[in-house]
């Protein structure tokens, strides 16, 4: 994997300047890593949008079954967190592109270089194989 998907400037900008993160895979199970990451970013002032087939509310925010179901009135999605296994990540990245997201963030061990390149080619910022919590702690 190339470092183009771990650019410190992109990471810093997404953590500092983004306002809204859609977390694909975020259900109401607090034992899941996606729940921990979404809560952390919410505590740091980010608006989170849970995206999960159950479409249940999570962390006080309404849930949606897919990125396509997020209404335009929710405002732009700055970052889509792709908390699905690598074999499903490409479809989520394609949904993020279609939804007009500004960036995709694939966490640790979620790797799909072809999908990441499609996102870059579509003008999205891409972070892959990085943990938002770890990067938050490291940012200066």
TrEMBL record:
Domain CoA-binding: 14-110
Name assigned to this protein: CoA-binding protein
Transmembrane stretches, start-end: none
Organism of provenance: Actinomadura viridis
Classification via InterPro entries: CoA-bd, NAD(P)-bd_dom_sf
